[in-house]
């Protein structure tokens, strides 16, 4: 498993954890999950352009 694949998996897990569906995170809004989603998309685009995945 390459470091790029591991980074994508970690970002996906963080994105799932930041979704405001649990009581302790409802007050956060969509900011954390939106930011992690953008970071994940950017990382995937960079990896695809480099041929990493």
Automatic annotation (TrEMBL):
Keyword entries, A-Z: Membrane, Transmembrane, Transmembrane helix
Record field: transmembrane: 31-49
Any one Pfam family match given in the protein's UniProt record, by short name: DUF3309
Top-level taxon of the source organism: Bacteria
Family annotation (InterPro entries): DUF3309 (IPR021738)
Name the record gives this protein: DUF3309 domain-containing protein
Organism from which the protein derives: Beijerinckia indica subsp. indica (strain ATCC 9039 / DSM 1715 / NCIMB 8712)
